[in-house]
Amino acid sequence: MNLLDMILQEKRGLLLTPVIDQYLTDREIKKGEYVHKKKSFGPSWICNPCLRYCWYAFHRTKGEPHPIDLVKILDIGNAMHNLVESWVSGSKKLLGANFVLENDDYNLRGKPDLLFITNNNKPAIGEVKSAASFKFKNTSVSILNYPNDDHVVQLNLYMYMFNEKLKKEGEVLGIKEPILTGCIYYLNKVFFTTGNKYVRINKIDAITDKEHIVNYNQDIIDATLAKIRVLQKNISSNSIPDRLFEKTSKDCKRCCFNKICWES
Q: Minimal CA–CA distance to 130: which of 193, 195, 82, 185?
């Protein structure tokens, strides 16, 4: 029995849910069929500590489809990105959203979420991230005090790519000065899955959003570019990097390349 049959069997008797689940299942199966003509390193995944994962991502390897429940959560996150973009656009301070940045020197390609003008009339790049409600509490995985390290690397790479493009062209999307400060804007998913009113009525101690300012850090850039140079050597010699984690580790179990990695 395939995944779709199992979903339809489980949801028997329902009307809308099977329609949605079938669409999402088909979409997940087809994901990865489109491949950008030029293989490149992506700021959103090059921060992954496992070089083997980065190898597969660079080669656009088709990973295992996400479970449907996870797909719905990810789609909610994308919808939240669009909402924030509409807020900034409404403020008339949005210069660009999901625009392509490329750096040929290191074969980097990515799309920052937002390029905007602050209330101090300074250009900034913003990354929007949705997070589970438990990350807005004082726990070991909280993002209240510090942003996620991977997100900091991603944002720094966008600033680096923007500034390098600026050096060559003199102006990018109307900006003529380098961007040395950006932000990571986290939104709490609980307000989009239960509704603000429900949260308030039940007196859940929840925070709607949290912003972290990130300054350009050359050390982060140097370390990431060094990692890319190592990967470039692996790719040139067609030598797949070693695995960083054990098969039974949490990192491996939740990796979309788990099956092809351990069967190869």
A: 185
C-alpha distance from residue 67 to each of 26, 73, 110 (Å): 12, 10, 26
Q: Which domain holds residue 92?
A: 66-216
Question: What contacts 70, CB < 8 A, 6 or more positions away?
Answer: none
* Residues of the chain where predicted confidence (pLDDT) is lower than 70: 1-12, 32-37, 191-206
| Residue 172 belongs to a domain | yes
User: From CA 258, how far away is CA 70, in angstroms rounded?
Assistant: 17
User: What's the predicted TM-score (pTM) here?
Assistant: 0.87
- CA dist 124 to 107, 156, 171, Å? 23, 12, 14
Backbone φ and ψ of 141, nearest 5°: -105, 15
The pLDDT score that the predictor gives to residue 54 is 96
Residue 155 lies in a domain: yes
Half-sphere exposure of 150 (CA within 13 A, CB side): 10
Neighbour count for residue 185 (Cβ, 10 Å): 19
Is position 33 within any domain?
Answer: no
d(CA 227, CA 244): 14
Q: What is the dihedral of CA 60, 66, 72, 76, to 10 degrees?
A: -40
The domain total for the chain is: 1
101 assigned to some structural domain: yes
108-110 and 101-103: which strand pairing? antiparallel
